[in-house]
Specification:
It contains twelve helices and no strands. By secondary structure, the chain is mostly helical.
């Protein structure tokens, strides 16, 4: 590890530390939800490590419980994680040039919080080693916080009082991540489109309304970015 990598790691950890606190209620809710769905602790943590995404886990749990077809479960997980396609494209430049293992690790550890918090600095700093440290340190820390908090939720499923309203706390934590991203026009358009359609289409069976809203939101974000680039080029 070069001094530049270590300096970036320290800065990334410092910047993302407040955001990581918001992962705790969200991970607790996910752990509780998996146990409530009938998962054993081993199954729950296996899903947590393999999927490593709250939206995909929570989005597919109701389908698993009702015995939905495997293709629908897989399609739901892919659709709710489509935002990571946009995130990965945005990070491809700043994190280019690393080894194959580093790229795989960066892709697996990609989370909403780290992306929203670190993207601006990743795009502006010229040192590749600094950028890698700035991304990996908070990503590894957030992964540790997530998995340990999920395990706590799994093991304490019967002991955590329902009156704590962890679902509400998790929603607030998610809003904290969304607000900084809304400063970018394509992201704002994607959020508004997806949010409005998810409410309007909430009556569709098997939560298909959520899938449609996600795809439409991503399409709207891409379209807005394309139009914005064309306007800037004039």
């Amino acid at each position: 590890m070069s001094p530049s990598f270590k300096a970036g790691a320290r800065e990334g950890f410092r910047v993302c530390l407040p955001v990581s606190v918001g992962l705790v209620p969200w991970a607790l809710v996910t752990g509780l939800a998996m146990v409530s769905a009938g998962f054993t602790p081993v199954q729950a943590m296996g899903m947590s490590f393999i999927v490593f995404g709250a939206t995909a886990q929570l989005g597919t749990l109701p389908l698993i419980v009702i015995g939905a077809p495997w293709w629908l479960i897989l399609a739901t997980a892919l659709v709710v994680n489509l935002r990571f396609l946009i995130f990965s494209a945005a990070l491809a430049g700043p994190l280019a040039g690393g080894t194959l293992m580093q790229r795989w690790l960066c892709g697996y550890l990609l989370t909403d919080g780290v992306f929203a918090t670190c993207l601006e600095r990743l795009r502006s700093d010229a040192d590749p080693a600094w950028r890698l440290g700035y991304y990996l340190a908070p990503s590894l820390w957030c992964a540790l916080v997530w998995q340990s908090s999920t395990l706590t939720g799994v093991l304490a499923a019967g002991a955590i009082p329902r009156g704590w309203s962890l679902e509400f706390m998790a929603s607030i934590a998610l809003l904290v991540l969304l607000v900084p991203m809304a400063r970018v026009r394509p992201m704002l358009v994607a959020m508004l489109t997806g949010g409005v359609l998810s409410v309007l289409l909430r009556g569709l069976p098997l939560r298909l309304g959520v899938m449609v809203a996600i795809v439409a939101g991503i399409a709207a974000g891409f379209a807005t970015e394309h139009l914005q680039k064309k306007a800037e080029a004039r």
